[in-house]
Design goal:
Elements lengths: L7 H17 L2 H6 L1 E9 L3 E4 H11 E13 L6 E12 L5 E11 L6 E7 L18
């Protein structure tokens, strides 16, 4: 059986939909981009469901703005795509801060949705933003 090859334009569109939904705080649209039982791997919260993680993010973080720096496609693992972005946001009433982030996505076999995202960034400068947050995702 021949595996479907990645459609760069389709994958790129999925990435732009993700960024738009994240910036707008549109949970329904964001969840529709992920497969059932998809997981988030966060440097601060560890492994959690996509719904619990992004619900928490949308409740706790405001003034989200993203500058896309690059979209990177997997060479060895063709079902992966990464977004490198500068992410400015305010956490629970604190002033805005910008971090450089890489969101590494695993795509489903047909490349139509995300099945996992690993969020990568240096947590040291912002760890204090989350130490006293209520209702952290599980």
């Amino acid at each position: 059986m021949m595996k479907k090859s990645v459609d760069i334009k389709e994958t790129e569109q999925l990435c732009y939909q993700y960024l738009s939904a994240l910036e707008r705080g549109d949970l329904d649209t964001l969840l529709s981009l992920f497969s059932e039982n998809a997981l988030v791997y966060s440097p601060i919260f560890g492994n959690c469901s996509v719904e619990s993680f992004y619900s928490y993010i949308f409740q706790s973080i405001s003034d989200r703005a993203m500058k896309l720096n690059n979209i990177l496609s997997g060479v060895l693992k063709t079902n992966q795509v990464a977004l490198h972005l500068s992410y400015t946001r305010s956490v629970e009433g604190r002033g805005p801060a910008t971090i450089d982030v890489v969101d590494l996505f695993d795509l489903t076999e047909d490349f139509s949705t995300f099945m996992a995202v690993t969020i990568i960034y240096d947590t040291a400068p912002i760890h204090g933003d989350f130490t006293s947050c209520k209702n952290a995702p599980q």
